[in-house]
Fold these 3 entries.
Entry 1:
Amino acid sequence: MPVRNGRTCRDTPTARNPLGADGYVFSVATDPDARRRGYARACVEALLEWFRERGAGRVRLTASPQAEPLYRSLGFTPRPDPLLELML
């Protein structure tokens, strides 16, 4: 079954995001034996509704190449600013 995590963060309100709320999705994973059954889609759709109910103006995530088609089908679009990380 998928694991889903999300959080909302408050930032400076803007015209496109009057509440200043952003959603972040992380740690979505499905056991290999349970893939291709719609579980991840159902979990992410529920999480997106949760963000909408809290007034999030956008939702951000990073995706593996295997998961990218799912997120694109849900309306996510690629951004020119990829996530950078430093492991110490």
Entry 2:
Amino acid sequence: MESSYYSTFILTILLAIGLAFFLRAASKDRTTIVDISSPLPPLDVLNGISNWLEERGWRREGGDADRKVLRFNGRVSSSPVLAVFLSILCGLGGACLGLVICQLYASLNWWPLVLVLLGPFAGFFYRNRASRIESLEMRLVSKVNDKKSQLRIKAHRDELIAIEAELAENLQLASDGSLTSSPI
């Protein structure tokens, strides 16, 4: 019977490791660089993207005229539902680990059940890591006087997907399509 407790203990530890990796991945920086082109003049494309970003709450933080760069900053908030879910998940995992330890080491009495108190720390950790200031940087690759636009945008992957989905038709934007075709 003791061997089944050890295997349950090992599986519970593996679940805890999986939760730790999930917490890390949920708050990971996913900044990506994408090249976008359009047959429209560069000023029309830059103004269209800039206005769209400002409507979504991004603030213009200046740029570099020599390098033809515009910078925007925006506050990204964490998901309260995911924070609560992770807290519950971690609390249940701590309770399970505590119960297994109680079975394996009966001399510890009920003390391993204190691991259930780790639950709120998972939500707190996620909330602090996922809430941050994101930046978006647009660099005009083509010349300002050209009839076609070539941009290089560096931003969070989700924001680039939103730009591609919402502005592609109006501004006739084209990219390699790797953002919307990848499985992640």
Entry 3:
Amino acid sequence: MKQILTFLTLGILLFSCSRDEEEIDKYQNNAYLVSKMSRGFRPGDPTELYTYFEYDNSKRLVKKTGEFMPLTYSGPLRFFSENYTSLLYDNNRVTVESFSSTNLFVVPYNSIYFTLNNSMQIEKKEIPAITNNHFSKTLLYNYSNNKLVQIKTTLPDMAYGATGPNEYLSYIENFYYNSNGNLTRTEYFRQEYGINKGEKIVRIFENYDNSINPWKRLYLSDEYFYRSISKNNYRKHTEMYYDNDMLMSTNDISWIFLYDSNGDILVN
């Protein structure tokens, strides 16, 4: 009986390893270097619009073209723009620059700088302020068991009249996962002198499929960052905004994906 259990256990382990290797092969295959992605996943978004992606010989994202932009800073209305973003790699440093390619709207030139660790994960993200360096941001990424567990955002204190480097105002976001390695929840807090105070945002990710994640290589794009973290793909996202622990608003978004005969998601 013990021998039978041993063989069964070994068989399960071999099947699991084989499946993991198969998923890695699929991910590394050029078919999972997504060349274009339909914008029609979310209800109400037109299916004939696409975002296009380009990669270098190391299969790193180097250009993204096409995105929805807000008509105003505070309103829900959006328009689809042919704006593009380029990514330039220099060892473990990545410069991400956004450009406007339309004559109808003026989009400010913007640069963001990433520092990657030896596992090609984000270690630091620097966001310079366009008009006032006092409002520049630095994001520090912390990992445990190869999973992102926290992002801390710091700002220069002189912007708020406080003394001491980066002590007054900061933000932290904590990340939580299920046993399948999928992101289930994040909690984002505003902090004063390291104490949670005021703004809080809770993000819930659920209704995951069993498909390989085609967004894995797009982790340097803010639009796809949360999707890139997980093993599979969430189909519902809820965001709850609190002010001093009082719930102010809730926003739910659901997606309907199509899958091929192998159960893998179709994004083109």
